[in-house]
Amino acid sequence: MGPNGSGKSTLAQTLMGHPGYAVTGGTVRFRGKDLLAMAPHERARAGLFLAFQYPREIAGVTLRGFLFAAQKACLAGRGDSAIGSPIEFQRVLEEKMRTLAIAQAFAERFVNEGFSGGEKKKAELLQMHVLQPALALLDETDSGLDIDALKTVAEGINAMRMQNAECRMQNFSCVLVTHYARILEYVKPDRVHVMVGGRIVESGGAALAHALERGGYAKYGVVEKIA
To answer: In terms of residue numbers, what domain contains 56?
Structure first.
């Protein structure tokens, strides 16, 4: 959590390898590897996932086709020889869509084309469930959502966490970037970190998020300006 311009989205995008950012110092280790030495697609294959604040449209490519290609690339990159057939993928996709309460026809639409804000976030949740990342970076995934869409997003995150708890072979962690504590009513955080000016200035439990909701960021010397 943190005010506008504090570096939250920059951190998420830099970890994923956005070409607009250059790391000038320090190191990042991910599952024993030097993350900064890897190209973005290599980071994705290694188990990193980024849900964008503003997902792009991909005209002419169905969500089903996109997900099948992405899953195949990730499995190949991880050295998994058991790459499923299109029929097996169809079974998995249908199962994931039922879990997220998404209509099957949704998969036949072009990626994000004509999608509402809530539908774009649902599509990214579906991507996360299909690709099964080790670490998901969710960049303001609650931005602009109404209460029903927010609950759907939260249920999708919680389903991944529940799967992680039930299957010890599955490791899943999530960094959720948000301005508000509203989504934390549905997704209970293990830890809350406050970022101001590109630095973590305070950490705590869920109570910290609610304190920020009441008092804002003034205690950190942040003055919100109104244009």
So the answer is: 19-188
CA angle 106, 41, 105 (to 5 degrees): 5
Residue 208 lies inside a defined structural domain of this protein:
no
Coil, strand or helix at 189: coil
Q: Please report where in the chains the tokens 């003055």 appear, as a residue.
A: 223
Predicted TM-score of the model (pTM): 0.87
Going by their DSSP bridges, the two strands 199-204 and 192-196 should be labelled as antiparallel
- pLDDT tens per residue across span 127-148: 999 999 999 999 988 887 888 8
H or E element that contains 63 = helix 63-77
Quickly state the pLDDT bin for 55 (edges 50, 70, 90): confident
CATH number of the domain bearing residue 23: 3.40.50.300
The span from the CA of 132 to the CA of 129, in Å, is 5
Residue 97 lies in a domain: yes
Question: Are 114 and 152 spatial neighbours (Cβ–Cβ below 8 Å)?
Answer: no
First to last CA, the chain: 22
